[in-house]
Amino acid sequence: MHAMRIALMTAVALTACTGEPPSFDSVTGGNPRRGLEAIQRYGCGACHRIDGVPGAYGTVGPTLQRIGEGAYIAGKLPNSPENLQQWMRFPQRIVPGNAMPDLDVTEPDARDIAAYLYHQ
Prior knowledge:
The structure is a single chain. By secondary structure, this protein is mainly alpha-helical. It has helices at residues 2-18, 32-42, 81-89, 91-94, 107-119, and strands spanning 72-73, 77-78. Strands 1-2 form a two-stranded antiparallel ribbon. The relative contact order is 0.22.
């Protein structure tokens, strides 16, 4: 877990230098640029506040800013790119009855969204 946090912090620092997300993230295996597009396509900003996403000022769900710093995802899963991806794809399976809808997020889109969220 410690090594993952160091890798994430390094990636974030490098991203800050260019002003835009990189095209590939080795931690998640996703593409942060495509992740931004997927976040907009799935309408994540309707419920969540997400830095760098136009119109993503939702207050229904938690803010997704600095998601890599949290200990848990959905208060249940240890914070890791794999668990974040599973949560995005199957929220009702993981915590039945919660407010996060099943949006049929594909596996590649989940990787890309995770890459974007861990890079902000």
